[in-house]
Amino acid sequence: MEILTTLAELKESLPTRERRKRPLALVPTMGALHAGHRSLVEKAVQDGGDVVATVFVNPLQFGPAEDFERYPRTREEDIRLLESAGAKWAFFPDAEELTGEHTGFSITHPVADMYCGAHRPGHFSGVLFIVSKFFHLINPDRAYFGKKDRQQLFLISRLASELAFPVEVRGVDTVREEDGLAMSSRNRYLTPEERLHAPELYRMLNIAREHYAPKSQADRIDLASRLVGEMKERGFRPEYVVFVRPDTFLPLSAEDPPETPAILLVAAWLGKTRLIDNIDILSAHG
């Protein structure tokens, strides 16, 4: 695996579209890699791609009171994981070179100000700015993102579509610990006691899916409200619980019939750690 650190090295090492024998697959990460990131690289390799993984803690997607400074940086471990997973290139860009000239230009979307975006102002603008820059600089045929960050996946898919980037965005299923906790680099913030308790979040999502059989919008609101209450009783501090449409990512409305497919999104704090998760609601009967 080749390690790249500058834009000049990136341009020199990556094949242009005309010279590619296999699709070029992009796996963007912020490092502190785990089995969830491994699954993205392995899926890209299985799909026949040559993988370039980026490792960049993007300052543009952190708010002033967030964890940019303490976000885990594990470069050597990340290199070993990417190499063993089959990546061909690992790009560790310098922040000054990649974002030093950023003057406030932003890319946004109405959904970017909802859910996680409502609690992390500017977060998705920072994500979309860097992802669009990677799309431009790397010019991949495919890009892989985990479904744990479902709102992010939706926005990046819309970015590629509406701005006509010649890239196919592919979502990869959430990888979970044996006890159900969605893998995340921030899970290492959990205390041992919190780590034992954290899988309760996914368990509650599954229970909510089992009880999802609304006859009206009021039933959906009631189920979401009951889930918020249960989360509070179990020591979580919920930020939001919402059923959204997969196609628009807008909340289900009174006009949506009971059989409308949905995604149940949640974000909640456990101690000093913010957890996000989601689960597909296929229909009122599934």
List the helices and strands and how they pair.
Blueprint: E1 2-4, H1 7-13, E2 24-29, H2 35-46, E3 50-55, H3 75-85, E4 89-91, H4 95-99, H5 116-119, H6 123-138, E5 142-146, H7 150-162, E6 168-172, H8 192-197, H9 200-210, H10 217-233, E7 237-244, E8 262-270, E9 273-281
Parallel strand pairs: 1-4, 2-3, 2-5, 3-4, 5-6
Antiparallel strand pairs: 7-8, 8-9
Pfam families: Pantoate_ligase
Pathway: Cofactor biosynthesis; (R)-pantothenate biosynthesis; (R)-pantothenate from (R)-pantoate and beta-alanine: step 1/1
Family: Belongs to the pantothenate synthetase family.
Please provide a written account of the structure.
This protein has helices at residues 7-13, 35-46, 75-85, 95-99, 116-119, 123-138, 150-162, 192-197, 200-210, 217-233; strands spanning 2-4, 24-29, 50-55, 89-91, 142-146, 168-172, 237-244, 262-270, 273-281. With 286 residues, the protein is an alpha/beta fold. It folds into two domains: 2-172, Rossmann fold (3-Layer(aba) Sandwich); 185-279, Pantoate-beta-alanine ligase, C-terminal domain (Pantoate--beta-alanine Ligase, Chain: A,domain 2, 2-Layer Sandwich). Strand 3 (50-55), helix 3 (75-85) and strand 4 form a beta-alpha-beta unit. The longest helix has 17 residues, at 217-233. Catalyzes the condensation of pantoate with beta-alanine in an ATP-dependent reaction via a pantoyl-adenylate intermediate.
Brief sketch in words of this structure:
With 286 residues, the protein is of the alpha/beta class. The protein contains ten helices and nine strands.
